[in-house]
Amino acid sequence: MPTLLLCLLIAASGEVRPTIAIAPPVSSAPQDAWVGLALADTLGTRLLIHSRYDAKSLERIYPLNVFGWRQTLAAARGEGIDAARIDDTSAVVVARQLGADAVFVGSYVVTGKDVALRWALVGDRAKAGTLALTLDGIGPAAEALAAAILQAIGQDARTAGGNKIEPLPIAAYKPFGEALLLLGRQSLDPRAQLVLGEPELRRAVALLSAATDAGPSFVRAWVERGIAAAMLGDEKGAEEALVQAMAQAGEFDPPTALGLYYLYDRQHKYDEAIAILRQATDAHLGFLQGLGYLGEAYARAGMQHESALVFTNYSARVPKSPWAALRRGAALARLGKHDAAIADTEALLVRFPGSLAVLTALASRQIDAGQLDLARATLQKVLSQKPDLPAALTRLSYIELEQNKAAIGLTLAERAVKALGDGRGEPLAGYAHLNLGHALALLGRKDEAMAAFAKAATLGVGSEEMAYVLRDARLADILADPRFPLALGHKR
Q1: What is the DSSP letter of 427?
Q2: Conformational region of residue 162, where left means phi above 0, alpha means psi within -120 to 50, and beta covers everything else
Q3: Cα–Cα dist 183/229, whole Å
Q4: Is residue 144 in some structural domain?
Q5: Cystine design at 437: which of 291, 377, 431, 453 (Cβ 3.0–4.6 Å)?
Q6: Does one domain contain both 163 and 27?
Q7: Are 36 and 161 part of one and the same domain?
């Protein structure tokens, strides 16, 4: 049941908006995968800027919540679903995890310049159809799909506001989609360690430069170009690209705000980064990606009350979203309110009894509260369904290490590292390597432990996870070794 604060926020924000999630349509041939990403990105942008003019308030209203393709794929990974193959069946699970009313999915075949797309809206207002488009007609195709989706959820597509998606040539869309294939492997959390190497990032910048050369008004390509430049450390190039994005958009739009946030955060201008997200999410209430980043930004800044409030607000906008409630629980735990955090997560488990992400989060809150045996039992439930889910393996490894079962902890950490690889630059990869080093150190394999700790430092480790190692008296010898890479000012 919603809390009083949640009810007040819902009342203050008006009726709950329909929430749409976009999954990239799946190609019949790997070389054509760029089409699905380019189409999904353009469709998500179109729905996000959909608006109507309220003659009474003299304001522009944005009546949709939109989950872009990155958020949709992240939700799929959280449930152990192959993110590259979201279909009608798995879309139901993804919709529940996101709290979306409907998920857009599709598949297509490319023949020459022609594309035959089969699409479906899976969820409360199901709809399906086909669409014939050309490779240089992705913009108009996104407009047509947006109109069909709006009609399916009971909105009048004929009065859809917001700037229309301009037609662009294939010379703009193809390199843009190919760049997204590269950048989709990298987390856009500004604190995430880069897993894309310099050659890959330079290729992404070159592709996006080709896209903006062919389509100077291509706002999303300018934004992605700015983000890729920032990843390379080219602040001047990033700023120039984002200035162009703002000039072409003609307004302060969500995609540009996300690019500026990314750049400001990497420049350690955290106040400016938070201000950008606040401005963007206040103006565009359906900008869920920005709202999520805002909550996380507050948490990293140690502003846990603000973080909890943002995620409460998020839950008000998307009442069916378990993720927002889980992040609120994490903020409460960081405030020391463990009973409330566990109770909130257990309530979510009643609503989402099959969700591995909720079960794993419950285990995390139990760990926070020192309830390690309960957390172990919770994680064993997860692993009985998905034996190689990295998040569950990593947390269970930590429990075994805390309870002096180093050999078991090592086995679990090795499994987590194998399942993750370098991840997408997300903190979990660093956490898994941290456990690996911790276990090796306890087993006396000092050189191997140092290598694992160094990898954890490269991938990035959160301060809370790092505290688990620094407070372990069993590691006094290795912590005192000057080679230990994490003792002071570990990398983020």
Answers
A1: H
A2: left
A3: 12
A4: yes
A5: 453
A6: yes
A7: yes
* pLDDT tens-place values along the chain, 492 residues long: 344 344 434 333 445 678 899 999 999 899 999 999 999 999 998 888 776 655 565 566 677 888 899 989 988 887 778 777 787 888 888 888 888 899 999 999 999 999 999 999 998 778 899 999 999 999 999 989 998 998 888 776 665 555 677 789 999 999 999 999 999 988 887 777 778 889 999 999 999 999 999 999 999 999 999 999 999 999 999 999 999 999 888 767 888 898 999 999 888 898 999 999 999 888 888 888 889 889 988 888 888 889 989 998 888 888 888 888 888 898 889 889 999 999 999 998 998 887 888 999 999 999 999 999 999 999 999 999 999 999 999 999 999 999 999 999 999 999 999 988 766 767 788 889 999 999 999 999 999 999 999 988 877 776 677 778 888 899 998 888 888 887 543 333
Count structural domains, the chain.
3
Question: Residue for token digits 């995390």?
Answer: 364
Give the residues across from 60 on adjacent strands.
Answer: 53
How far apart, in whole angstroms, are the C-alpha atoms of residue 156 and residue 310? 31
Q: Is-contact 225 209, C-beta < 8 A?
A: yes
Query: Is residue 477 within 8 Å of 447, Cβ to Cβ?
Result: no
Q: Is residue 336 part of a domain?
A: no
From CA 485, how far away is CA 127, in angstroms rounded? 54
Which one-letter amino acid corresponds to residue 202?
Answer: R
Q: Structure pTM? A: 0.80
**Domain with 181 in it:** 168-284
Query: Of 264, 284, 304, which one is at a domain's C-terminal end?
Result: 284
Exposed / middle / buried, residue 294 (Cβ in 10 Å: 0-12, 13-18, 19+) = buried
Any domain includes 372: no
Domain end marker among 167, 187, 218: 167
CATH code, 215: 1.25.40.10
Q: Do 141 and 183 fall into the same domain?
A: no
